[in-house]
Design brief:
The chain has helices at residues 2-13, 93-103, 131-134, and strands spanning 31-38, 41-49, 71-76, 79-82, 84-87, 113-116, 124-125, 128-129, 142-149, 152-159, 168-173, 183-190, 198-200, 218-220, 228-230. The protein has 231 residues and is mostly beta strands. A four-stranded antiparallel β-sheet has the order 1-2-6-5, covered by helices on one side.
Length: 231
């Protein structure tokens, strides 16, 4: 038994490896435009440069990725406005908080910049937002941006689809109401009979801020088109 075990053991560990060197060239520098417009939310845009996929990210110098001093036009319904650039480190505390809320961003140490409507702070009155002044998105609206930066000109167009309301809300008590006052809330809705509709939900209690979804907050209609569902 021992005489056969040793040669087999040697064969088991015998192998060969080949090093393969791949020269991945750095990508051509491009502008990256991320534009946001939602129902009831002012437009805002981040303009950055791309980075090599296999390269390092300079977390201590995030500001170096942002493109400053760009000219960005926001066009909707015959109205054109040039967006203004705001960088966190340059803002007074009140306006900084407004911009951070736009980005759901809590870190003050990074130099984050974005472009949004001029006088974004003036569009707020206490906790309420003047959507006419802020040029908030509307269902069915068509929106266009024209970006001029570093000798390049880019443009994009998008629409906000029309919304459809849910049918009703119902609630169910907890299985043990004596020990828990929480309830289960069900949303009942009917999907249109055409593909391409999505549902996104947010939850909040009275006038408190919205809670962040714990799981998926967006559902498409591939399995539900033309049917009624409950969430």
């Amino acid at each position: 038994m021992i005489r056969y075990f040793i040669p087999l053991l040697i064969l088991g560990f015998a192998s060969c490896t080949t090093e393969i060197d791949v020269d991945i060239p750095d990508p051509e520098e491009q502008l990256v435009v991320e534009g946001y417009i939602e129902n009831g939310i002012p437009p805002y845009i981040t303009l950055t440069r791309n980075a090599p996929f296999f390269g390092g990210i300079a977390l201590n110098d995030v500001g170096s990725y942002f493109v400053n001093d760009a000219k960005i036009l926001f066009i909707t319904e015959g109205d054109t406005v040039e967006l203004e650039e705001y960088c966190l480190i340059d803002l007074p505390p009140t306006l900084k908080q407004v911009v951070k809320n736009f980005l759901s961003f809590q870190n003050d140490s990074l130099d984050i910049c974005l472009y949004t409507i001029p006088d974004i702070l003036g569009a707020f009155s206490g906790d309420s937002l003047d959507c006419e002044k802020a040029r908030c998105g509307k269902p069915g609206g068509r929106y266009e941006i024209i970006v001029e930066a570093e000798g390049r000109k880019l443009n994009a167009v998008t629409r906000i689809p029309n919304t459809f309301a849910f049918d009703s809300l119902t609630w169910r008590p907890h299985k043990d109401p004596e020990n828990d006052s929480l309830v289960i809330v069900d949303v009942h809705l009917s999907f249109p009979d055409t593909l391409g509709n999505y549902v996104r939900y947010f939850t909040k209690r009275n006038s408190e801020p919205f809670y962040a979804p714990q799981t998926l907050s967006v559902y498409n209609d591939r399995l539900f088109v033309g049917t009624q569902i409950s969430l």
